[in-house]
């Protein structure tokens, strides 16, 4: 019985070199490139046994159909595409099946897997190449839908059907082929609900500033699309989270102020830290008493948004970390919550096991500068003994230890960035210095380009550079708005970045 069951399984013969070639289309009904098509199914015949893989996600049809087609294997080497909705008249349709139909054993694809038919007398031959990237970071985006709409049609990404469709590859590029000659409005969409329409507030979108002209006998210029998440039309409280003694509020739009009230009308006092975009704020309770549990009314710029619930729990152990970049040779420490009182007598500093004098100077609610007279090089071990730190509610620390790096001019580098005008732009800008993970370490704003920005006290390592063309001069990057035909503020990413060396001054002309 086991022998019979084993023989009944469908397998390719084992042995030999690994199969790395995808299935090849050898025949089809109708033939590839047929015109005047009127059927309701297409049968593709391949050179080897095949399987269907995630047809709904992987089969790309351009222009998209009102109802997704079905795919099923017929025999071993054939696949039937069932058309579940009528095709439009005088239209060229492209079925990109490369990812949807793969070989049976290795899952190899046919990289040229495209089938084309027309319901009219000709196969359209226009092509448009598009590049899609994230507007804020410049990162290329894979899997985004590229949608084209003729300018003489009322349809756009919010309503109606597109005339051309493709998905971006790993390099952010997509080519929409077999287009009818004409002018097209071009969009890129992160389609979260699979309906090829921009109808969800969290869907990311990009749109071309000008229509693209497509001609079969001319290669159109590549269209560059910068994807953004539109700002909500109204202010909303997206998230309110109480964690380890800090309240984090996330808003749908930037705000000038945020306040909370008890239902009785009592206004609570908070130590606040806003992010650069001013749409997220972290709040530590600044009252001297204990914060009681209960609901709060949350207001932004005086407007009531929603309620949030305070669930008071014991705060975790206090922690401290060195701020890696300060712009100077100073050592800067940051605690995870505001420190009201520091008892210097209960702070010990050691270098090579020898006690050394150090003075901690307050630089903000959570930051202290470690003033010392030690020579650069090596490290300094700090110990905050119990009771050295106290917050506003009288809570103190357990023993807290950290080690900081003592760096002088010979252990750090300086970067001078000479900024030339980007095209015709000469207005306000923001230069962002990025670490190797892409996190913003420092942002410097300026009034006009060209300009020169000096960054000293940098740890020796590679850095990324990003330039925000801050057209409205508000000191932050602003997103786009399709309804107002407003593009996101342009961001330029330096292709190579800068490699800072210890004891060197590096000048980068950009």
Beta-strand proportion: 35-45%
Class from helix and strand fractions: mainly beta
| Largest sheet geometry | 5 strands, antiparallel
Distance between the termini: 74 Å
Radius of gyration: 31 Å
Shape annotation: elongated
Mean pLDDT: 90
Question: What are the SSEs and their pairings?
Answer:
Blueprint: H1 2-8, E1 25-29, E2 41-46, E3 50-52, H2 55-58, E4 60-62, E5 70-74, E6 78-82, E7 92-96, E8 101-103, E9 114-118, E10 126-134, E11 145-150, E12 164-167, E13 173-179, E14 182-189, E15 205-207, E16 212-214, E17 223-227, E18 237-243, E19 246-251, E20 258-262, E21 270-274, E22 280-285, E23 294-300, E24 303-310, E25 320-322, E26 331-335, E27 341-342, E28 347-351, E29 354-355, E30 358-362, E31 367-372, E32 379-384, E33 389-390, E34 400-405, E35 413-419, E36 429-434, E37 440-446, E38 451-458, E39 462-469, E40 491-493, E41 498-499, E42 505-509
Parallel strand pairs: 10-17, 35-42
Antiparallel strand pairs: 1-2, 2-6, 3-8, 4-7, 5-6, 7-9, 10-13, 11-12, 11-14, 14-15, 14-16, 18-19, 19-22, 20-23, 21-22, 23-24, 25-26, 26-31, 27-33, 28-29, 28-32, 30-31, 32-34, 35-38, 36-37, 36-39, 39-40, 39-41
């Amino acid at each position: 019985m086991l022998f019979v069951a084993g023989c009944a399984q469908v397998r390719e013969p084992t042995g030999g070199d690994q199969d790395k070639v995808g299935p090849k289309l050898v025949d089809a009904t109708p033939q590839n490139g047929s015109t005047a098509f009127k059927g309701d199914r297409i049968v593709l015949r391949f050179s080897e046994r095949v399987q269907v893989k995630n047809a709904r996600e992987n089969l790309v049809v351009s222009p998209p159909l009102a109802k997704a087609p079905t795919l099923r294997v017929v025999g071993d080497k054939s696949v039937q595409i069932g058309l579940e909705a009528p095709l439009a008249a005088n239209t060229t349709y492209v079925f990109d099946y490369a990812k949807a139909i793969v070989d049976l054993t290795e899952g190899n694809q046919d990289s040229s897997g495209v089938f084309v038919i027309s319901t009219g007398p000709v196969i359209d031959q226009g092509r448009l190449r598009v590049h899609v990237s994230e507007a804020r970071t410049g990162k290329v985006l894979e899997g985004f839908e590229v949608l084209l709409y003729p300018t003489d049609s009322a349809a756009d990404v919010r309503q109606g059907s597109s005339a051309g469709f493709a998905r971006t590859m790993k390099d952010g590029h997509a080519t929409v082929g077999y287009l009818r000659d004409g002018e097209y409005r071009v969009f890129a969409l992160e389609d979260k609900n699979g309906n090829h329409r921009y109808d969800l507030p969290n869907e990311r979108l990009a749109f071309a500033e000008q229509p693209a002209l497509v001609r079969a006998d001319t290669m159109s210029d590549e269209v560059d699309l910068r994807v953004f998440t539109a700002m909500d039309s109204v202010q909303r409280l997206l998230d309110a989270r109480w964690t380890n003694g800090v309240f984090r509020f996330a808003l749908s739009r930037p705000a000038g102020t945020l306040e909370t009230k008890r239902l009785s009308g009592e206004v609570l006092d908070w130590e606040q830290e806003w992010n650069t975009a001013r749409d997220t704020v972290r709040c530590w309770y600044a009252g001297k008493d204990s914060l009681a549990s209960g609901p709060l009314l949350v207001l932004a710029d005086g407007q009531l948004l929603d309620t949030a619930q305070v669930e008071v729990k014991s705060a975790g152990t206090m922690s401290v970390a060195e701020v890696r970049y300060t712009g100077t040779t100073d050592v800067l420490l940051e605690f995870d919550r505001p420190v009201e009182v520091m008892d210097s007598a209960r702070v010990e500093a050691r270098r090579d096991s020898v006690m050394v004098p150090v003075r901690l100077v307050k630089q903000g609610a959570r930051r202290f500068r470690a003033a010392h007279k030690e020579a650069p090089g090596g490290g300094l071990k700090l110990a905050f003994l119990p009771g050295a730190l106290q917050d506003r509610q009288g809570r103190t620390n357990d023993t807290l230890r950290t080690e900081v790096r003592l760096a002088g001019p010979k252990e750090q580098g300086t970067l001078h960035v000479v900024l030339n005008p980007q095209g015709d732009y000469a207005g306000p800008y923001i230069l962002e210095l990025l670490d190797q993970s892409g996190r913003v370490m420092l942002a410097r704003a300026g009034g006009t380009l060209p300009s020169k920005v000096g960054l000293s006290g940098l740890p020796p390592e590679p850095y990324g550079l990003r330039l925000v063309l801050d057209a409205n001069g508000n000191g932050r990057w602003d997103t786009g708005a399709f309804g107002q035909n407003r593009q996101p503020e342009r961001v330029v990413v330096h292709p190579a970045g800068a490699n800072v060396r210890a004891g060197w001054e590096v000048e980068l002309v950009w």
